[in-house]
Amino acid sequence: MPGHSAARRKRVDLHRVRDELPPLVREVVLAYERHLALERGLSPHTVRAYVGDVVSVLGFLHGLPVIDTVDASNSAGTSGAASSRAASNTAGTSGAGGSGSGRGLEALDLQVLRAWLAALRTGGVSRTTLARRSAAARTFTAWAHRRGHLATDPGARLASPRPHRTLPSVLRQDQASDLLQASESGAKEQDAIALRDHALLELLYATGVRVSELSGLDVADVDLDRRVVVVLGKGAKERTVPFGEPAARAVREWLAHGRPALARPMSPPALLLGARGGRFQPASVRRIVHGALGAVPGAPVMGPHGLRHSAATHLLEGGADLRSVQELLGHATLATTQLYTHVTVERLKAIHDRAHPRSR
Prior knowledge:
By secondary structure, the protein is mostly helical. It contains 15 helices and three strands.
């Protein structure tokens, strides 16, 4: 298409940007990374995302290219970087603290943070991503202020763009039933891979756990007599989630006939194993879910998180209260769980429009 190449997005390697930061600033970033991983107990994926956002704003502060779009790196990113570089030159001599540990961060103020967000927006970053990045920046500046790297906390006054919340795609209950019936039919052949795939699909839908939580399960975490599983969620928070008899049957079959066939002498105690006997990874779970859903007529394109959305929606449709669903899903706040009530209302509206004699 004409002009298509000019609008092509060019990804920025934030690892390279971090390597180009001043040495003392890199030390602060590494300290913050250790804080997120060791003190807050965040998952490696979350730590990478938070640190990437921090590297982006600090790279912008020091005049490095951090905008994903070619046009933005030539215009808004350059002007923003120039202004932040000038701010660094003027503020560097009177920087905060005076200890030297925060040298290079002194010019990080509210104006720079706003210029960084504006450059990202000009580069085509969505409002949802902007909201996440501004939240990450606020978390970092608050930590840096507490540790003495910043004299004040500029992020405390940084307004966050209100993201556009889109309703997640969910399966209808009949589609979820078709998915699991097809999986169960394949498992009846007693093939180890089919037994594992059926067990993971049943557990994902029955418990609504995150894909990382499922992959992290060990055999000892599952109590088939009580039909509960102990999950280590975000922030290393442990919770107990119940599941139904269909999932219990699938797990029993997998443990009795499937897992022994894949286990090796050096296999970990993981509940789910790959073909070579190692712990089954989240990427492999996503591949299994995509493939299984592709065989369900009319099912939306989704991954494991779609089954989590579907489980929550179906629980609410079945009469579960919002607080209980929050506990089952491991949401830190009720506001996150309330998203599923909107899904349910939209579905009820669709049913009403289709079925009620006076809906039109």
